[in-house]
Amino acid sequence: MQWLMLLPLLLVLILFGVSNRQEVALTLWPFDLAWVTPMAVAVLLFSAVFFLLGAAIAWTTSLKHRSRARQLEQAVRVLEAEVAEHRAAQAKDLGVVPPPPGAGLALMRR
Fold first, then answer.
1. Which of 16, 61, 60 is nearest to 40 (CA)?
2. Which of 35, 55, 63, 104 is spaced 20 to 30 Å from 94 by Cα?
3. Residue 102 within any structural domain of the chain
4. Angle (CA) 44 4 8, round 5°
5. Rounded to an integer, what distance in angstroms lies between the CA atom of residue 47 and that of residue 45?
6. Do 33 and 27 touch, CB atoms closer than 8 A?
7. 54-79: per-residue pLDDT in tens?
8. Structural domains in the chain (count)
């Protein structure tokens, strides 16, 4: 299933790279440096850098929520253990439960 979604994307990226082979010079204003590279490499490189930057920002903003979820999961485990203890104590206090009326007759008919 992943390949069905990945193949068209890879095809578009390959076609983009083949179609945009002209060289471009990338410069940064205050510095006197230039990087000459095919346009496809420059665009894909900048896209990858900013994708990773966005992923890092999303990951760091989700840390608070993930921490809270772990705390709540721990609280649920503690509460489930307490409920199990209370149920076990109630079952112990209740003792032997007599069979419902007429249950003995149903067993004798078989």
1. 16
2. 104
3. no
4. 35
5. 5
6. yes
7. 999 999 999 999 999 999 999 999 99
8. 1
Tokens found for residue 31: 């510095």
How far is C-alpha 12 from the chain's CA centre? 27
33: left (phi over 0), alpha (psi -120 to 50) or beta: beta
Looking at per-residue pLDDT, the higher value among 13 and 55 belongs to 55
The count of C-alpha atoms lying within 13 angstroms of the C-alpha of 49, restricted to the half-sphere facing its C-beta, is 6
Contacts of 34 (CB under 8 A, 6+ apart): 25, 26, 27
Q: Cα 69 to chain center, whole Å?
A: 13
Domain contains 1? no
Domain with 35 in it: 11-94
Q: Scan for tokens 């000459």, then name that residue.
A: 36
Q: 59 lies in a domain? A: yes
Rounded to 5 degrees, what are φ and ψ at 23? -80, 140
* Strand extents, DSSP E, 4-106: 23-27, 34-38
Looking at residue 3, what is its pLDDT?
Answer: 83
Phi first, then psi: what are they for 38, rounded to 5°? Answer: -60, 145
